[in-house]
Protein 1
Amino acid sequence: MQELTLTPEVTYVFEYESSQYRVGFDRDNLEGRRYRNDAPTKFMATNTEYQEIKPALVGVRTMSQNEYQKSELLLYFLPDIQKYVTAQYSMRLEPPMEGGTPVTEFNFYWNV
């Protein structure tokens, strides 16, 4: 039986408005699959040298918005594996008033 090892393969740098979110993936040595946080994904590895990639934002859908918060669905294209990934982006002001500090969050859907 062989030992399963994980090697860093890619870090995606997602950007939207003034926010940035970094996500790293490893590849395994046996199946050639990408892993995120030690869990397998449906994405296959490229078996290339480690790289940092800024995926292209190809679509935006506003789900809700008011003067203190908004929620949007973002569609990014991952050029190295020719796949799309969806993220829910939210921004809210803390405290919820003019002059509040923007708090942002990205939630990605990797296995859909």
Note: The two ends are 31 Å apart (CA to CA).
Protein 2
Amino acid sequence: MVHPSDPRQPNGGAEQFGETQVGVPYFNTAGVPQQPAQPGYPQPQYSQPQYGQPQYSQTQQPAPQQPAPQPQYGQPQYGQQPFGAPQQPGGPQFQQPPFHQGPFPPGQYGPFPYGPPPKKSRKPLIFGLISILAVAAIVATVMVMAPWKSTPEEKTLSFALGDGVSVQVRLPAGWDAQSDTEDGKTLIRIHEDGDDRILTQLSDNLRSLSKTGSGTAMHTIVMFSDKCTTSPSGQDWSTKNRDDSSTKHTERWLYASSKVDDRRCINLSAVDSAADSVTAGSTARKTLQKLIDEDRVTASKSV
């Protein structure tokens, strides 16, 4: 084996090129055996890191990007873009449509602003009804009072009775008189206005009240001429009361008689009758008393 420093081998021995003999140890100048060198491959070079910014010998990593600026949300300016979405910086600007799509402005229900339609007040209707009732009451009062009608006045009527006797009667207001007949005799029926029942009807009604207590009230005066049965007193009229009431009805009479001459007398009979005494009252009897007290009946006989 040739030492590399051997002057006789300036280019070195074969072992310098990796051809050392197998099993022959290689000694350095100190006599220490060494491992044979590996084939000649270049060793990688590593640079020492510098403190501060990191240095990379092979691939440099990209620098981190700064975050994109966030959109700034401001208060909506009234009259410009109410309720619109925030605009993106750098991008196209879109006009947001308003939220309402119908024909009415926002916050309204139909054609009525600010909520449902208001309820109609009933005051005009109430006042109208009150006015109508008031007018109706006035009309009814006027119709009842009937100021254009004349106040009932007294009537003076004349009638011819049998045997040449004639009579004249001045009736109070509200009363009337008609001529009637019964058993062939002429009689005068004096009654309240509106009671047009003839004597036969009045007689049937009186019998019904007497027997069954059913019937309508009656206030009637009958005047007739007849023979005098008693001699009248010195007064012009003689009177007599009679009560034919029963448990079923009330029937009260007032008789009055006056002489026409020595043989003939004028007679009046008044009756108040009804199913009860309150309804029967005394209207007819009071009217008869008025006739004789005020000399409203005048009788005469032809010669």
Note: The first strand starts at residue 26 and ends at 27.
Protein 3
Amino acid sequence: MHRTRLGALSSIIVAAFALSGCTAGATPADGSGKPGAGDAVALTPVASRPASPAVPSAPALDAATKTACAQVSKDIKAALAKAAKAEKIGPPAGYAAVSAQYSAGASAIYANVIGANAAVNGAARQVATAMGKLADIYATAPRIKPSRQDLEAALKNLTAACSGA
């Protein structure tokens, strides 16, 4: 069971890394592969800039990151609701279902965080890792209810990253 889950999560992670390396406009528009005169305009310094504020503001989230945050948040809520429902069944059968729900939630997070900025991607990875650890504990020790402290801390980090703080 662990090997199957690891294989599925590994393939999702590899896909995420492969897709996150793509950048638009990496080559010049003329297709020559060499910088042209149009590139020099972008490299000229600005002569005067307005004074920066004393307190740095949080960077604005791009559209892909906002979409990823919304989808990941939806996935987390669904996974936690399904895990809570399965937990009501009780050990050991219910805990096997809880393990499956946490694993599915972690996989959904990895799949839907593609395209998000580094802060959101890292925070979502922490949530997925915490969910995976809970899934492992529920699967290996079905009579012990594990602590959700790591998951709650990771959820706070994700909330902060998605708010741009």
Note: DSSP finds six helices and no strands in the chain.
Protein 4
Amino acid sequence: MRGTTVRRNSAAWQAWLWLIGAGFAVLLVGIVFGLQKTGPLCGSPLIPDSRAAEAFDALHRGAEAAAACYRAIGAAAVPTWILIALAVVLVLAGVTVRIVLISRSAARGPEARGPEARGPEARGPEARGPEARGTGGGSLR
């Protein structure tokens, strides 16, 4: 992390990582929940294929299996899409926190970031090498 003051063990570093991690975890839960079938002849909210229920309705007049399947899929789709939308919001919040941290760090300038961010001139002669200290490496003219 060159040039930023956010330390890997700081609360800000942990906050954006936790937000992104939680977002991906919620997304995974939403996808798994959305792939679950809503009945024996029904599809799922993410794959609403209910051909078996429609075929059953064609063979048995008045069974209304397909209608029941589509109602069940519609009911199960609401929490699925809420979980997926929540996941997207969490990931975007984590990315936003990270961008704000980087921009605040850059806005402070190198003076607020410490000598390691300013370069060898700011760290003193020991960081520049033996020539700057006058202890060797140069000519004796």
Note: The two ends are 42 Å apart (CA to CA).
